[in-house]
Design brief:
The complex is a heterodimer of chains A (about 210) and B (about 400). Chain A is mostly helical and about 210 residues long. Chain A has ten helices and no strands. Chain A has a domain of about 140 residues. In chain A, helix 1 packs parallel to helix 8, helix 3 runs antiparallel to helix 4 and helix 3 runs antiparallel to helix 8. The termini of chain A are far apart. Chain B has a two-stranded antiparallel ribbon. Classes of the chains: A mainly alpha (about 210), B mainly alpha (about 400).
């Protein structure tokens, strides 16, 4: 894989992250990250949808009439989302119940449409596929960080395993943070991640 | 002037190029804490003055110290009341000084934790940013310790203070740039994170030291009203403040003493205080008129005496950084705080006290209120100008 293609994967993980830099897909990132497991499942689902829809649209990009391209994109994305939803219901029913409407709402996730419009419509299939994988992982990275922090400090568990209880923290007076489970705290956490990222990466800082 | 000499001798070490250059902010903080700095606003350059027109040696530190002095009556009364409540509910025969001493010992760790955590973070940020340490926290730290229940676990308090200073203030650039009152951010953090330690009947009364039995519970007047119980405290009790409640906000008398000082020195805005009282009173009267349930029939002036209304009105709504800046804006801002606080108390079944949330809500809206007031003023003056132009046109025509 040459370096340009590698960048398609690594850029969205860092300085072009869809959540922390482009600020897309915030809604689902606040809604599904109260626990780690749904966050990981959501991250994988979005990665699959972005990568495959990028691939399909890129294959069709020359035959799509520009005036109806949004409709064509939506049809492709919806089909993929329905597929993902069925797979989730078949294999991880509990998580799919937890995620409820947010799987269906992947259709409206700005990252998906954004990548189709900005990348897949003008690039070759393999590049588009890699770009989809990269953006899905960039989105997933933030989700996993949020899910990890929120589940650990909000419920004292990780992937359902009672970490803090085993460590004996409750016996010395520790209590779970109820606030971190709520959506406002998730937004504050996203803000803190953005803060850390920007203070490390001077390129991302806006000029005052 | 041994202290002055000491500072002068040490100063070169902390200035640029000195040995402890990194600690310049820390040094500056202690120096200007001890002495009024001899720099004043602006200065004469050539023939013209630059900067603001009014020169005054009263800097932020002196302002904050006045607030701290204004807080003293409430703080001292609160300490006594902690001991008083414990003695009452555990049936102990404590004299005045014993009660005060007990309250002092219970308050001390809360104040120390609040100050140490908050100031440590303030100093850290000042050093990183090479700024002077801002003294806003001297007031905030004391206020935080005065609005929590006496039984608050100290590690939770420490976490809340850290959250309030970092997210409530430093993120936006430090004192003067925050749009939420940091003390209330700390309390809200505690309130939403650990509701069982911030409300209910079992958190307001401290158990005596070395006490092993079951803790005695005592409900606040607001808690009793929300649970539909009859009020135990009389209006006079609530006015003087001999009721269970957060550490230092029960006594309306002591708070009024502080209010007098703040108003006399012109540090707090009388417009905000008055409009908060008006807003709360009118909302209370409205509920009296509806009278659909027992809570609505509570006399409107009881709302001034219960919970944190008085404390919030005098010390938090008037915070000059987070309040509205225009005079008309202050009336609107204060009025809505009072009205929302009483509305939340009476209508919301989830929270017994509405003052904290009302002030935080209006903190968010203060810039918008100011914007609207300024825009309306511009429009008014434009119209006046236009009218004048029209008259002149007619005259020339």
């Amino acid at each position: 894989m040459n370096s340009n293609r590698k960048k398609l994967i690594t850029n969205p993980l860092g300085k072009n992250n869809p959540i922390t830099v482009q600020v897309l897909g915030i809604c689902s990132c606040l809604a599904v990250t109260a626990q780690l497991k749904p966050a990981v499942v959501m991250a994988l689902s979005v990665t699959v949808v972005v990568a495959l829809s990028n691939l399909i649209i890129s294959l069709m990009r020359k035959s799509i009439p520009p005036r109806i391209r949004i409709i064509v994109q939506l049809v492709v994305v919806s089909a993929l989302v329905i597929l993902v939803n069925q797979v989730l219901m078949a294999f991880v029913y509990d998580v799919s119940k937890q995620l409820s409407v947010y799987v269906g709402l992947i259709i409206t996730n700005c990252i998906v449409m954004g990548r189709l419009e900005a990348f897949a419509m003008t690039n070759k299939p393999w590049d588009s596929f890699l770009d989809g994988i990269g953006n899905g992982l960039g989105y997933g990275l933030i989700l996993v960080i949020l899910g990890f922090v929120r589940e650990l400090f909000g419920r004292g568990t990780l992937w359902g395993y009672p970490v803090f209880e085993k460590l004996g923290l409750y016996n010395i007076g520790y209590e779970n943070n109820g606030f971190i489970i709520m959506a406002p705290m998730a937004l504050i956490l996203v803000g803190i991640i953005i803060w850390i990222q920007r203070s490390h990466n001077k390129e991302l800082q806006e000029k005052p | 002037m041994i202290l002055r000499d000491m500072f002068d001798k040490l100063k070169p070490n902390f200035s640029k190029g000195g040995r402890f250059e990194k600690l310049e902010s820390t040094f500056e903080a202690f120096e200007s804490f001890a002495f009024t700095p001899n720099t004043v606003t602006g200065g004469k350059v050539g023939n013209a003055y630059r900067g603001s027109h009014i020169r005054d040696a009263v800097d932020l530190k002196r302002t904050i110290i006045t607030v701290v002095i204004a807080l003293m009556p409430a703080l001292l009364f609160g300490m006594w009341n902690i001991g008083h409540q414990t003695a009452l509910s555990y049936g102990l025969d404590w004299g005045f000084w014993h009660q005060f001493w007990f309250g002092f010992l219970r308050m001390l760790p809360i104040i120390v934790v609040s100050y140490v955590v908050g100031l440590a973070i303030e100093f850290l940020f000042a050093e990183i940013r090479h700024e002077e340490v801002s003294e806003g926290f001297i007031g905030t730290g004391l206020i935080i310790s005065m609005i929590v229940p006496v039984t608050v676990p100290l590690w939770q308090l420490a976490l809340a203070v850290a959250f309030a200073v970092v997210i409530g203030k430093e993120v936006f650039g430090g004192s003067g740039y925050n749009f939420l009152n940091p003390a209330l951010v700390a309390r809200a953090f505690l309130f939403f994170n650990y509701p069982s330690h911030m409300s209910g009947d079992s958190v307001w009364i401290a158990a005596p030291f070395h006490f092993a039995g079951d803790a005695v519970t005592g409900a606040t007047p607001l808690g009793q009203l929300m649970a539909g119980q009859p009020l135990q405290a009389s209006a006079l009790d609530m006015f003087i403040g001999t009721i269970p409640g957060s550490t230092c906000e029960t006594s309306v008398v002591a708070i009024l003493l502080g209010a007098l000082l703040l108003l006399a020195t012109g540090i707090a805005s009388w417009r905000i205080m008055l409009s908060v009282v008006l807003g709360g009173g009118l909302m209370g009267l409205l509920f009296n008129a509806i009278g659909a349930n027992e809570y609505m029939q509570v006399p409107f002036y009881y709302h001034y005496l219960m919970g944190g209304f008085a404390f919030g009105c005098v010390f938090m709504a008037t915070d000059p950084v987070t309040a509205a800046q225009t005079n008309t804006g202050k009336w609107i801002y204060g009025f809505l705080i009072g009205a929302f606080a009483v509305m939340l108390r009476v209508l919301n079944p989830a929270y017994p006290e509405g003052m904290m949330l009302a002030i935080l809500l209006m903190n968010c809206f203060a810039p918008l209120i100011d914007h609207c007031v300024v825009a309306a003023n511009i429009k008014k003056r434009q119209r006046r100008w236009q009218a004048k132009l029209n008259v002149e046109e007619r005259r020339t025509a």
